Amino acid sequence: MRNKKIFVAILAVILVGISFFVFGEQKEIFQQPPSEEIPPAKKEISVYVSGQVKNPAVVTFEDDENLKIVDAVNAAGGLTEFADTEFVNLSETLSDGQHIHIPTKEISLQEKTASAPDKNKNSSGGLININTADENELQKIRGVGPAIAQRIIDFREQNGNFKSIDEIKKVRGIGEKTFEKMKDSITVN
To answer: Taking a C-beta distance cutoff of 8 angstroms, is the pair 162, 168 a contact?
Structure first.
């Protein structure tokens, strides 16, 4: 009987040893080696810079959320001697897909335009027709600078004429507050 107890004890020790060996090996097999953390993909933004820059182009940046229009202008070779930045906010933050247009200094043309009859204004109230106004005329609307003016032109080229003045809120950058400022000076007639 004593031999049976010793035999059972030895068998138990062997089984425990085997199980530690087997499960220990399995644990190592199933444990994955520590992996190197893969840094998140850097987000890129692309903007189109046109007008009075030395190399009009689409420029791409890694988005660090601190990029400004001046960075895009510099990436496009900088301003030409004819560039007019009076109505361009060079410190505005860039956003993906933005179109930045640097206008030309047109002092003599602006003087001619100011003295010529305005084809974009409604004779009944001096309203600016957002369906026919060019970039300079659109900039006369309260709250509209060169970037927004270009977006209005791009929007109507892609979508056709505005059916009502309320549709101008579909243009990126024109929200309810901006619309409230401009609604009394615009028309679609």
So the answer is: yes
Cα Rg, the chain, nearest whole Å: 34
| Residue predicted with more confidence, 109 or 46 | 46
Phi and psi (nearest 5°) for 37?
-70, 130
Q: Which residues contact 117 (CB under 8 A, 6 or more apart)?
A: none
C-beta atoms surrounding 8 within 10 Å? 10
Predicted local distance difference test score (pLDDT) of residue 64: 78
Phi first, then psi: give them for residue 81, nearest 5 degrees.
-70, -15
Closest alpha carbon to 147 in 114, 165, 172: 172
pTM as predicted? 0.39
From the centroid of its chain, how far is CA 158? Answer: 19
pLDDT of residue 2: 74
CA distance linking residue 142 with residue 178, whole number of Å: 8
DSSP-derived 3-state class of residue 180? helix
Chain-centre distance for alpha carbon 107? 32
Average pLDDT over residues 49-60: 92
pLDDT for 108: 34
Q: How far is CA 32 from CA 3, 22, 39, in A?
A: 45, 17, 19
What is the distance between the alpha carbons of residues 89 and 164, in angstroms, rounded to a whole number?
29
- Judge whether 141 and 182 are in contact, CB under 8 Å: yes
